User: What shape does this take?
Amino acid sequence: MLPVNQVFSWAGHRYRLLWCSGDIAIWIEIDDDTSLPVCLPLEELERLLLDEEVQRIDDPFIQAIMREVEEGTPDWQKRERAWNMLAAHVEDPGLLDSRTRGHIVRSIMEEHGVTHQTVYRYLKRYWQRGMCKNALLPDYFKSGAKGKKRQVTGTKLGRPRVVRDGTGVNITPDIERVFRRVIETSLLKEKHLSVADAHAKSLNFIRAIYPDSPASEMPTPEQFRYFFRREYEKTSVLEKQSSAIDFAKDIRPLRSTSTAEALGPGHRYQIDATVGDLYLVSEHDRSLIVGRPVIYVVVDVFSRMVTGLYIGFEGPSWVSGMMALANAVTNKVEYCRQFGIDIGPDDWPVQGLPDVILADKGELNGTKVEPFSEAFGIRIENASARRGDAKGVVERMFRTLQDGFKPYVPGVVEVSTSRKRGGHDYRLDASLTLSEFTRYIVAAVLYHNNFRTMARYDRAESMPGDLPAVPLDIWNWGLANMTGRLRQAPEELVRINLLPHDAATLSDRGVRLFGCFYTCPEAIKAGWFHRGAGQRPEKVQVAYDPRCADHIYIRPNKSLKDYWVCDLADLSRRFRGMTFWEVWQLTRAEKKADANALMVATQEKGKLLEQLEAIVAEADASRPDRSGLTKKDLGTRIRENKQGEKQHERGRTAVRPIKKHQDKTADIVPLKGEKPDDYAFPDMGDLIFGDDGDE
Assistant: This one.
């Protein structure tokens, strides 16, 4: 038995099956306004279908009869009028038989006072368009050719003017070309004009084409807007008027969700940072305002649990990101106890590493993260630049954590530092220290993890209906029912592998990194610092904490679990207690000072060479002729000359007391009648030096 209302195609014509009973089928051609129901043997129709001479096709009127019409509209009124005529008779099989159809039609005519043509027009519309009430709807939706281009004739298209003077002008091909040029150069780009300005710009070109046209006969703003909306799709206009990044981030349709990418709790983390929306004061002196803190958050995508935190003054960088990831493997009971918050192990049961970490194209992008990724088998993914929508879970978490304190905490960032000239600066209201602010953030995280209901959370297919959308409940359910487990790892080992790595050189003075020298017992035992031994490698891989230059960590082999702790050597004792940022700043200043001093030294050395050349030239000019001396005479004379020169030098360089100037020398009176002695300063040259026989 064939389904009634099915549409068939046969010999280039389309038919709708109206009746199928016994061995008789009745159909009607749907494209001929004069056609009426026709009978044919059911066996013949089935044969045609088997021979594929007749094919089943889609109903061409499905869009027309699926319309919704409002009550009271002309469409609704015409449909109700026609339906009231036919409702009592459309189910009568006699209408399909030409022998009884005329009697039924005459009864409808007499009952409703309509003509023969009207009844047949409604009946054929009913049969041809689907045999339902909406088949009687008129085709008003086709009127006006909405969105289609009109054919320009001599008369003005559109409704006549009521307010403006003149009759207006049709949009000719020349005007269309002007419109397109202005739209594509002024509207379809990121920094675009307004539609009104673009219309005004187009009038300048049109006046050049039609210089004698009055203002009343120029295209109106409405015509320009109509052309713009008709010829250019709204979605393409939005894409052209936005940058590629803004379109992808804020405008394009969202086709999926972050949760669909997570296999379970602990499978995928997202990490990001923001600058806190308040100013803090110093821990040591509350009168000092120290600025805004940096907040790093690590969030589990599946459950929305906050798994790691960093709150401090280190700017968004690898260092602060490293501390947030290290916090993800930290025991949260001990961590909360640092801030005076007592929790149980079940209140924050996250301590481990995920399978995947998604971050910005910044902190986790580069060679610094490679040792960490290789050591623990974690895949690092980086979102495209300025694509915050790729990390929607963690981006939303910043707003969740910060919206809670803004109405109650002083020093919160406002739109401007003062609302009016001479007004109060909100930064002066700062009162919280870093530890106090951290205590609040930790408390807010605990509330979020344990109690906050996520109204827009997209649940997995297998989640039960009685599971509340609370992060901790979703986390626990996921651990019990889905894949994804946190990877357990020693906290110290994770911290070491999270540190940035670099290549250090070795010499007998120690391990040299950024101008600092380090030693350790293991390296000494390995003979790396023995002078002249040649038992050390040229370079070695080391990890370092930029916040402290006192220690580095040597990677002695390819195993990422082995490391040696090296301490700062006495040779670099001046760097003790510094950070590597301070070391870099100090060494950069020293290099700059040495480079400047070298430039001065180079200039002075040039002057020294000039003096040397002058002295040599003067000496050469005073040199006598010695061409007559033999080698034997020359050697004898050199020895004699040296002795004479030595005696002369001794007399010239001997130390003598400085005599005070007196006009008259005092008389020397002898004692006990003795003769006066000679008290002159003796010449001690011979006694001291003697004749040493120098040649």
About this structure: The chain has four domains: 7-142, 173-241, 259-414+425-481, 500-584.
